[in-house]
Amino acid sequence: MAQSETHYSLPAPKFDGDAPHLLIVISPYYKDIADNLLAGAKAAITASGATYDVAEVPGALEVPIAIRLACNNNKYQGYVALGCIIRGETTHYDTVCNDSSRGLSELGLQGLCIGNGILTVENREQADVRADHKGQNKGGGAADAALHLIMLSNHFNRPTKGIGFKPDAEHIIIADKTNGNKTA
Known about the structure:
The structure is a single chain. By secondary structure, this protein is an alpha/beta fold. The chain has a single domain (21-171), classed as Rossmann fold. It is built from 5 helices and 6 strands. Helix 1 (31-48) runs parallel beside helix 4, helix 1 packs across helix 5 and helix 2 packs parallel to helix 3.
């Protein structure tokens, strides 16, 4: 079913000149699935002209924490979260899915550019289809999402061209309350 579904994807981002540096944070809990996700993410980042580092964490719950720790050094302009959560026999699946997703969303709302490629699936077959970098390529899609957010952030944070009121520093008058004199 999932293989026959079609959807629109934005064109892959391309950077000229000052390309961003991203951190891919991956949980290799299901190693073969993680390897496919990682291959797709690496290819997408490289094709855009950007660069990347990779950090491994034990599970999906640690992915948002690792991204939060990494953002303190201002080395990365974006992040790609990769991993796979396959439903098991207990409610732990729901906790891991919800908490990892919530953690990434909160970081995104704080201004980090994050592509979420943590698969949340019912079985291994669904995971294999989504992770295949020659198929649905959710790793590449997560990298593209992070790159699009970086481009959007760069656009919104671009300095203005000086249009509007900007006071001249020589004409700012400050009242000196100690002796009543005005200084500029």
